[in-house]
């Protein structure tokens, strides 16, 4: 049986390694030119992207190169050069959005398979067929597509691979067709520089030139417009504003069995090239766990959701794949723009596995949960530096001493300290150390 592929975001080389180590079959990323994340901090350059491809191929895994921007006429020569440079790195596919770029890539680098970006907004058999005839191997379906439509496309084009998003940020507009960022910041979403204006907190204002007119805001609140054309702020919760454009985050892990049972989906994609290393690791680890459980005919949705809720999120939604928007009841959140998640990451283990960097406040005696790649061997030790123990099938670290790489000893340490901290035993590279947020609240950190 051919298993579904798990595809994770790789915003830089470290995130690429974490995603692969924590369970992804493949990752996607790009060098900034013509990639839709060209403003992502600490992005790839050609050298680090080549290193990432080598790292993946050594482990029998894949890297897909994003060339999914929409070029202007004056950029075509530069685009041709970019395609050839990326092809020389031997990625496993190009992710492309524009039909003209698909044709150009087929001409310049016919040996590299083409995956069609979600930005192409494929929703139906007609569009899928056009791109299939152009030589596209896989379509990354529009987030607005239903599972029923994916099944119909698969019936009509059984050799065309279908990839869907299962987790991550959702666009306020139709898969990136948004002008707010362009109007307010001069940053164009479909050319890789979205400012995420939909995530901002907005304050409402009204303006009217008729001084005698009352402007209705709600059923009970009215604001009288002045005669000087000034804007009047309508009352809102102090210091909060409103997040009227802010979309919830996609989370389809509870529907994984339904998706895989359909037989129409070849790859599950996680969004988030600009998100944290912890996000890269936890999403890959959790979806890998759920996929493996599916093929074992097991299911533990409660555990999967508990892990995903440790991540910062804007509330979760199952998007458009299973249900249509008009089928929903009241799913809006009027209170917060983002949740901090149920856990706080306190530490991240380095490549050597012998030390870690502090990501939050850590004190001697704190119980830090160890989150490592699945099937990792975690040593159980108790020595002068600390103790690693198992409880309820989870592993924990308690430090008896906080010893820095320079030999200094502390009773507590904070994220501003960039010195490495010694571990009582070697842990897998990129292991995370975390604590529940409820514990932090009790400690008043």
Automatic annotation (TrEMBL):
Belongs to the peptidase U32 family. This is Collagenase-like protease. It comes from the Bacteria. GO terms for molecular function: peptidase activity. One of its GO terms (biological process) is proteolysis. The keyword Lipid metabolism does not apply. Keywords: Hydrolase, Protease. PROSITE patterns: PEPTIDASE_U32. InterPro entries: Peptidase_U32, RNA/ubiquinone_mod_enzymes.
